[in-house]
């Protein structure tokens, strides 16, 4: 019963995302990853994210937050894609630990396909269980950037 309520709330949240961007983000993220995306994403993770977030995605206490079972990684695609494109300097709290170091933006470092791949990899590994991110989703969010 409780899990049904949670699912309904999540679906409502995803619906709002769709209305905002005028795109079918929820639909896309329910599909299976496109072939090769996870494998490419793993390489991008190792080259680009691992230095800070660590090989096991466990982060560094007090410095870099974990990407294991992360509510951000498994959360709404709009917010997650935005973090990778624009960086993050909001301060995050995960499992009682707070993190205040800034994360740099990757909008000029990674292509839309690369961001889709690395997030698809993350969302299906390290205890995360969320649907894939598509290149179309990343392109739409990137177009919404005012500083790009
Ligand atoms: C230079 C170090 C650094 C690199 C490289 C880096 N991050 Fe981060 N990341 C951080 C820090 C620090 C935060 C916390 C920012 C804050 O507190 O506002 C963060 C936060 C996050 C978050 C939200 C919080 C969480 O733990 O879920 C996500 C998602 C994320 N990073 C994904 C990535 C991905 C994907 C890459 C590779 C493309 C990456 N990061 C590369 C330092 C980094």
Quick structural summary:
Helices cover 50% and strands 4% of the residues. The chain is mainly α and 148 residues long.
List keywords for this structure.
148 residues; mainly alpha; Cytochrome Bc1 Complex, Chain D, domain 2; 6 helices; globular
Textual characterization of the structure:
A two-stranded antiparallel ribbon has the order 1-2. The chain has one domain (2-143): Orthogonal Bundle (Cytochrome Bc1 Complex, Chain D, domain 2). The protein has 6 helices and 2 strands; from the N terminus they run ααααββαα. The termini are far apart. With 148 residues, the chain is mainly alpha-helical. The longest helix has 20 residues, at 2-21. Helix 3 crosses helix 5, helix 4 (77-86) packs across helix 6 (135-143) and helix 5 crosses helix 6 (135-143). 50% of the residues lie in helices and 4% in strands.
Principal-axis shape equals globular
Number of domains: 1
Bin the helical content.
40-55%
Q: Report the sheet with the most strands, covering strand number, pairing sense and barrel closure.
A: 2 strands, antiparallel
